[in-house]
Amino acid sequence: MLALDPELGIRYYQNEISVGNDNSPLVDDLIIPKAVNLSNNFHVKWNHTNSLLLKKYIEFKNNHSKIITLTNEDVKSFTEN
What we know:
By secondary structure, the protein is an all-alpha fold. Helices cover 23% and strands 0% of the residues.
């Protein structure tokens, strides 16, 4: 229950009156940087490995699996580094 204590743990709002009355020493010195606009400078190098991993992850989520299986067939086109 200590984590939910508004004086000792992470602050939570009990009602509208609490907004703006933040008293949470746990995060008082936390520095949150301003958002950076990456729309013009952000590029992802997408390759076969990324595609395979995304495909396997989607199958994993859709099938509610507990493991992701990679077969020899999945990786046969990979090259060694």
